[in-house]
Request: fold
Amino acid sequence: MPEIIFDCCCISNFALSDSLFVLESLYSRSAYITNFVSAEILRGIQQGHKDLVKVREAIKDGWLKETVLSSQREKSLYETLSVSLGLGEASSISVAKSRGLVFASDDRAARREAGLLDVKLTGTLGILKKALNHRIIDLKKGNLILAKMIEKGFYSPATSLKKI
Reply:
């Protein structure tokens, strides 16, 4: 599987719906978040979203890796993007562009910027569809996960994976 980097919203959708197993099954040992996204996750935990602790556990388990901006190229692109995007999105796009990773986000502005930079994209629905195609989940389980994501605040353009 290609390496992937998640923004806070996308990985949170899976954590809050108790479905991080989908990401682990698809991207074990090739999944990343930046330290900026990790800080956003910590802030969410502190604000009472206890299920986000599962993201920190995934890092401890080793299938999800936390990374930092390491090159001048990444830092420079991050500085440019952080003018119009959140720090998590800006850092994730910078790493994705520099290292050739897929960027997982549902944020329209972040996806637009990533697209302009020719960064490969996916989002929550694309990942759920991929999990269906790889038989990690069936349609019924996928729709239950999607419903729980929506219940937890995910704005989804679809209410059923059958329509995707």
